[in-house]
# Entry
Amino acid sequence: MLNDPIIIETSKCSLYFIISASIIFIGIGFWLFHKSKHQVRYHPATIKGISIFIILFFLFCSVYGFYRVTGKRSGLIIDREGIRDDSSETMSFIYWKNIRRFELIKIHDTKLIGIFVDNPDEAIGLGSGIREKLMSANYRLYGTPVIISCVALKCDVDELLNILLDRFSKLQ
# Structure
């Protein structure tokens, strides 16, 4: 049983929402661009600049959503070696030997799972660019650089915490 990996898939609902909302905002951007020459309140170049920014930003969001929907990445894989989180951009892989404990973190009405590791600076150093910045922010705010959110997963926070605690206790 410990040799079998537990795979928790990503939820596609939030990705479909991102794609749909992005397409709507791209349409709004094109509408603004078209209307920029017919209004007198703001300079047309300002409206065109804002509309181009809206179009490009939400085009990026929709491409990212399509990439994640059609991608082969699993959400979360829990195996004998450790935990691989492909559902977020902050964590990639944490070995069981580096984990000290798990803790439920509540932010307003959202529950997250904090994974406290032996050497937080080492975990932060494994990331690069924006991932490193996000992990540093997590560490400053919550005391751990590694946080799992179940928003993008097909799993409840409490269920995932029980799975992690069970696997952690069996591997210790």
